[in-house]
Write the structure tokens for this entry.
Amino acid sequence: MLSSLPITGTAQLLAVLSPFVPDEFINQLLPGNRVQGRRHYFSAAQLWRVHLLALLTSAHSFNAVVRLLPEQLAWRRFAQLDHRYRTPDVRMLCEFRTLVGVAALRRINEELVRRLLRFLPATGQPVALIDATDLPAAAADNKKKTRCGGPPDGPRWVRVR
């Protein structure tokens, strides 16, 4: 299947997708006081755009996004960050996710999908969108845990004759 979108991770893809991000909707949904200071220097839309960079670029973690953001002009343009060294840190992104909560993030995603679907031509082809917000993360801290707190699958030690 041929796609008219540029390759994932490129500056062209970020330029194409940037107009679809519902900045006004995000800033109205999550009003923050834009006073000077570390916590409130960035708008909710800017922080959400930085979150999108973890999905749309080759940096698939927030640590990598934050580390590479000062070097990547296209990423800063997408996130609407004016200054090269005035970028959010990982703690700000974590606090933003905690403050916003799952319900607000879902509303933002629904608005984004609504805008994207209006852009698609009505060709009669089905479109499937995956919502993985309720799936557990495959993080390193979850790999060796037993399932649902129950007993392990097998015996812990086996006696040898």
